[in-house]
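FW: tagging you since you asked about this chain on Friday. Here's the raw sequence from the shared folder, copied in full. Didn't touch anything.
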Amino acid sequence: MVILAGLILVSAGALGSAISFCAGRIHKILRGKIGKLCTGLIMLSAAIWGLLIPAIESGTPIAVVLGVIIGIGAVKFAAQIERLPYNHTERTLLAALTLHNLPEGLAAGLAIGSGTASALPIIIAVAAQNIPDGALAALAFSSAGESKRRAFTLAALTGVIEFPAVIIGAVSASIAEPIMPFLLSFAAGAMVFAAVRQLLTMSSGR
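HL: got it, structure written out here
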């Protein structure tokens, strides 16, 4: 299950990277309000029902609140790095976009390792988010002056981090049961922030 989940997430990002160059109409949908609304709502519901509620049921309020805050902070930090101007080096852009994918992979792994019934919906939600993310990452590299082939390759590589992240999340869940509520709420905070940001960009029309 863990290996399959990692392959699904990586493949979804690569699919988005390919779509950005070979299907203009689909790409417009992914970047448009419909695509952002669907992926944002899917991630938000999966984070709340699959991660946050189990964390609340099994942990203390302090552990849950702390986990959510740190999870939000982790994704916010990645988002700030991601906003660096695209005239920065290729390595900087690659690192920023890769870091952006790390918390989502951890969230999927934690859901699997904790044995929650909502592990599959969370994997589907993250995979759905990875398709437009892959498309936008390819556009970012293309805007930085890379060729279509190299932009696709680099964008696909940014999602590879999710494969080990899923494994790390699953292993952490199996050996760190006492802090499971914190880990689940950390993953929930990361996913909620990503989902809300998706919905906000939709409402602002960006």
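FW: Residues 56 and 64 are 6 Å apart (CA to CA).
HL: agreed, and The chain has a mean pLDDT of 77.
FW: great, closing this out.
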